[in-house]
């Protein structure tokens, strides 16, 4: 009787349970695949924008520049120079002469100048990589029909010239040198502010701080600061560095009167703002690295009579250094990719000269990407895609060096 | 003779001061280190003071009363209307869309990584997630505008979906937050001890039952913290919405039309040359302070949950 009841109460649902298991396994796996697809789509999208066909028309027809039956592409260097001299205004001509005398420029360089300054090709339409590869015949037909005068060319927007040229308003000749240098200058001041204070704070919290309310507040505060949106730091930087400390950040305090930046919207302000932003990240990473150094090492050092600072300086820091540096590199790569706080601090919209001092106006790579992305024309989107590739390569190499550093120097105790 | 030497030595020993010396150098260094540690407090105070000061000016300047700000639905600084709802509403919408993507996907990926994936698969997948997490947000903004928006416009029709819309920004924001939620959740799941799983297997549970009925409940506090941190991140996210969600405050519940979020508004207003002490200038401080407090409260809640509900296994 009793045994039967048990058997009756037992429902064999094993198959259903296993089926459930399989279904959810597939769901979990599919979610992971979705994540990977998102990454691939993102990379594909950037590459898709950075290459492709461009149709452009000359603003000045090259045929009109033919002299004595010699087309402009085959003229000698002297002819091209005189062409420049006669077409450009005196001011523009002299400016070019001052940058680099015409006598010392090669014919190729001068021909490039003729194209940039006189013929001035204008983009009429841009195609991405995918349509360029799959529908090239249709593209050719469209161009032949709609823009009979235009030339069609398959271009890579990312070239060596793109990296080495300054920013201009002409998509075909624009470059990111100004932005890259701006990023480097900014990061320099970020590191100068955040690294010493960050490591100092980590040493204090791990080695010196006793368990009391003040130190608990400091620790909690650092954790909270790490979660504050980056744009809030931008507003803080605007209030403190750009406005309150204007004499310092604009260089007036040091007697440097910089005509290009009478206000505090400078490389220095930007760097310090990003420094505040990454400070909590550096502290938290450095704390972890210091914590990983075993107690016994410190005790041995104290045992032979070293003072606290001697112990920290000669034993704890050398062992924690790879971890600290790895954390700092990761924080720096975060700072390099930051856009929002710098927009608020006041990155310049269009500057074509390189930053030359802490008190220069600035633009950075992400700011440049933002500005190009916000413009409706496709050619600027392509420029944005090319600069994203530059930024990603920069960040990837930074992260790779962090990983290398970790693997090469990390010690296990 | 020998006795004398011993006596001398004894005398000398008795004068050695065994008390700890005060070393000036050590004290200076300790002072500097304390200053570094205390510096972060200055940053917080700076945020509260500077933002609070200008925000106060903002409310005084226009005699905007707080009630009107919190109840009206028009944000038009040039005619003195400061209803925060259009901005707040679109922030809420992008955040909701982002979380609708990031929570289910992020948790599924975390459960997969922690419970199902073989060590080899994990060693491939985790770096991919780290790469996703390390991509700057402006790149996601580009992605939203040039990839997600065209896809949405293909699916729902060009006249329904505007070029700038909150749906596209929210979806891409979900992808941005996915690695954050995944890694925090996965940490929580892997902290659950092996013995709990073994016990459940011993009772005849299937892999899914172990994962969802044993491991996930045991890690619930960590998972909740991950979700809250994700929300706080979504509220403060700026560049995606600045690029893809549209310019101009717009009080709407449709995800397919452009609407400016709080962060997007701050970026647009400060992008031009902002003159000090104008209404616009002061308003971004008020909005910044608002953001600061919302994210601060969310972060504190998440830390509290972790502390309060954490199961400690020995």
Report on this model:
The complex is a heterodimer of chains A (413) and B (314). In chain A, 40% of the residues are buried. Chain A is globular, with a radius of gyration of 30 Å. Chain A has 18 helices and three strands. Chain A starts with a helix and ends with a helix. Chain A has three domains: 48 residues; 113 residues, no CATH class; 233 residues, MetI-like (MetI-like fold, Orthogonal Bundle), CATH 1.10.3720.10. By secondary structure, chain A is mainly α. The model of chain A has no long low-confidence stretch (mean pLDDT 85). Chain B is an all-alpha fold. Chain B has a domain of 190 residues: Orthogonal Bundle (MetI-like fold), CATH 1.10.3720. Chain B has 13 helices and two strands. Chain B has a two-stranded antiparallel ribbon. In chain B, a hairpin with a 4-residue loop joins β1 and β2. Chains A and B meet through α2, α9, α10, α11 and α13 of A and α2, α4, α5, α6 and α7 of B.
Mean pLDDT of chain B: 86
Provide the CATH architecture of the largest domain in chain A: Orthogonal Bundle
Q: How many strand elements of chain B?
A: 2
Fraction in beta strands of chain B = under 5%
Element order, helices and strands of chain B?
Answer: HHHEEHHHHHHHHHH
Order of helical and strand elements of chain A: HHEHHHEHHEHHHHHHHHHHH
In short:
The complex is a heterodimer of chains A (413) and B (314). Chain A is mainly alpha-helical and 413 residues long. Chain A is built from 18 helices and three strands.
């Amino acid at each position: 009787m009793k045994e039967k009841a048990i058997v009756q109460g037992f429902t064999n649902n094993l198959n259903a349970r296993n089926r459930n298991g399989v279904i959810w396994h597939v769901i979990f796996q599919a979610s992971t695949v979705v994540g990977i697809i998102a990454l691939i789509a993102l990379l594909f999208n950037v590459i898709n924008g950075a290459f492709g066909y461009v149709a452009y028309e000359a603003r000045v027809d090259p045929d009109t520049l033919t002299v004595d039956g010699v087309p402009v592409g085959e003229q000698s260097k002297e002819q091209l120079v005189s062409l420049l001299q006669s077409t450009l205004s005196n001011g523009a001509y002299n400016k070019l002469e001052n940058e680099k005398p015409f006598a010392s420029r090669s014919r190729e360089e001068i021909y490039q100048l003729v194209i940039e300054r006189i013929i001035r090709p204008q983009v009429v339409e841009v195609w991405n990589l995918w349509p360029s590869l799959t529908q090239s015949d249709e593209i050719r037909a469209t161009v032949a029909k709609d823009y009979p005068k235009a030339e069609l060319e398959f271009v890579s927007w990312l070239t060596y010239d793109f990296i080495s040229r300054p920013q201009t308003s002409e998509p075909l000749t624009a470059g990111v040198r100004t932005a890259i240098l701006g990023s480097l200058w900014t990061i320099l001041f970020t590191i100068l502010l955040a690294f010493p204070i960050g490591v100092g704070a980590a040493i204090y919290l791990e080695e010196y701080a006793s368990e009391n309310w003040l130190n608990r507040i400091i620790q909690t505060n650092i954790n909270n600061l790490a979660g504050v949106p980056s744009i809030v730091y931008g507003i803080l930087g605007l209030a403190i560095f750009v406005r309150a400390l204007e004499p310092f950040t604009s260089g007036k305090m040091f007697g440097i009167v910089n005509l290009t930046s009478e206000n505090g919207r400078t490389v220095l302000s930007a760097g310090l703002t990003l420094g505040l932003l990454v400070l909590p990240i550096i502290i938290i990473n450095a704390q972890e690295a210091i914590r990983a150094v075993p107690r016994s090492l410190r005790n041995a050092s104290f045992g032979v009579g070293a003072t606290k600072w001697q112990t920290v300086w000669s034993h704890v820091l050398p062992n924690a250094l790879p971890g600290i540096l790895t954390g700092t590199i990761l924080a720096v790569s975060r700072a390099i990719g930051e856009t929002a706080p710098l927009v608020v601090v006041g990155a310049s919209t269009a500057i074509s000269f390189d930053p030359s001092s802490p008190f220069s106006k600035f633009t950075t790579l992400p700011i440049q990407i933002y500005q190009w992305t916000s413009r409706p024309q496709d050619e600027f989107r392509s420029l944005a895609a090319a600069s994203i590739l530059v930024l990603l390569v920069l960040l990837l190499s930074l992260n790779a060096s962090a990983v290398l550093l970790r693997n090469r120097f990390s010690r296990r105790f | 003779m020998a006795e004398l030497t011993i006596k001398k030595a004894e005398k000398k020993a008795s004068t050695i001061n065994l008390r700890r010396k005060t070393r000036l150098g050590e004290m200076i260094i300790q002072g500097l280190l304390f200053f570094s540690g205390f510096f972060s407090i200055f940053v917080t105070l700076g945020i509260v003071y500077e933002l609070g000061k200008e925000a106060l000016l903002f409310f005084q300047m226009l005699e905007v009363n707080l009630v009107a700000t919190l109840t009206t639905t028009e944000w038009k600084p040039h005619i003195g209307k400061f209803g925060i709802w259009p901005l707040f509403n679109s922030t809420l919408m992008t955040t909701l869309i982002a979380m609708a993507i990031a929570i289910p996907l992020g948790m599924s990926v975390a459960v997969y990584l922690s419970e199902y994936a073989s060590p080899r698969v994990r060693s491939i997948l985790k770096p991919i997630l780290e790469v996703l997490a390390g991509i700057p947000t402006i790149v996601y903004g580009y992605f939203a505008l040039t990839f997600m928006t065209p896809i949405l416009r293909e699916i729902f029709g060009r006249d329904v979906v505007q070029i700038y819309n909150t749906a596209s920004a929210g979806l891409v924001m979900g992808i941005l937050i996915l690695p954050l939620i995944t890694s925090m959740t996965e940490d929580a799941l892997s902290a659950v001890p092996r013995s709990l799983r073994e016990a459940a297997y011993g009772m005849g549970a299937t892999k899914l039952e172990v994962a969802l009925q044993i491991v996930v409940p045991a890690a619930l506090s960590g998972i909740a913290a991950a979700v809250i941190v994700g929300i706080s991140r979504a509220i403060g996210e700026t560049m995606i919405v600045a690029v893809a969600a549209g310019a101009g405050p717009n009080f709407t519940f449709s995800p397919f039309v452009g609407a400016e979020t709080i962060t997007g508004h701050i970026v647009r207003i400060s992008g031009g040359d902002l003159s000090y002490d104008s209404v616009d200038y002061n308003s971004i401080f008020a909005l910044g302070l608002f953001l600061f407090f919302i994210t601060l409260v969310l972060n504190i809640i998440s830390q509290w949950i972790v502390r309060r509900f954490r199961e400690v296994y020995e």
